[in-house]
Amino acid sequence: MSEAVLREPPPLLGCPALFPELHARLIDALASLDEAGWERRTSAGEWRVRDVAAHLLDGDLRKLSFHRDGRTPPMPQTPIGDYADLVRHLNQLNRDWVEAAGRPSPRVLLDLLRWSGAHVSAFVAALDPMADALFPVAWAGEERSLVWMDTAREYTERWHHQQQIRAAAGAPLLEERRFLRPLIHMSVRALPRTYAAVEAPEGACVTLDVTGDAGGTWTLRREGGRWILYEGRAPAGVAVTMDERFAWRLFFKAVPDAERRAGLSWTGQTALAEPMSAALAVMA
Predict the structure, then answer these.
(1) Does the pLDDT at position 1 exceed 70?
(2) What is the distance between the alpha carbons of residues 179 and 184, in angstroms, rounded to a whole number?
(3) Domain limits at 243?
(4) Which of 30, 98, 172, 200 is the most exposed place for a label (fewest CB within 10 A)?
């Protein structure tokens, strides 16, 4: 296969510039809500709008405390031996925070978010994107990540939780190309981990086409017993297609399990295409 066909995905260096607008849009959406709006249920399980907002505040405070200020994260209550342990630990941290955050009023949460979001935006803009990140992006299967990768992950976290708030509040979703393109181009980096347990012959390829202005084409190729992600189209193999709006919903658990497969179309072996329906760019 020609090296000109497939290439390593480039770093996503533009995400810090999106933080201020993303933050401003969040504040506008929350500020428009009345008391009942803050109590609306979202697609995030049992969480209400106020719970998702509190979770975003927690993410800001962790970013500033651990990454900016060098505070050592608290030790987990039980040892973390694998990915499932890490997910359980993070889920417990999230539950504990949201439970405690039921005490502040919406006004207090909004004031705190105004402060924290502005400081996070300034912090990520000043970072060296090619330095080592404090934590690896585990859902991408990384054991070491660079800052640009972690910042892009932070961007997707803030974007998709704001989508949950906006959907619950009946506000317009953030699906403009400038928001959606980096989100999708980051999310596809979950695919090697998605396919980690899928066996295939050396050189086997699975190409993903995400259609729409924010989309692109990527190929997973089996090399040395693992799957490697490239940009570009393989000349042969399995080809999977999905729309950009379905893609973000797939990666961020906004599609019911029964409908995840229905949003895909493909040519080639079903056994290599179907795992794409399990792709998640979140810790789950």
Answers:
(1) no
(2) 9
(3) 189-278
(4) 172
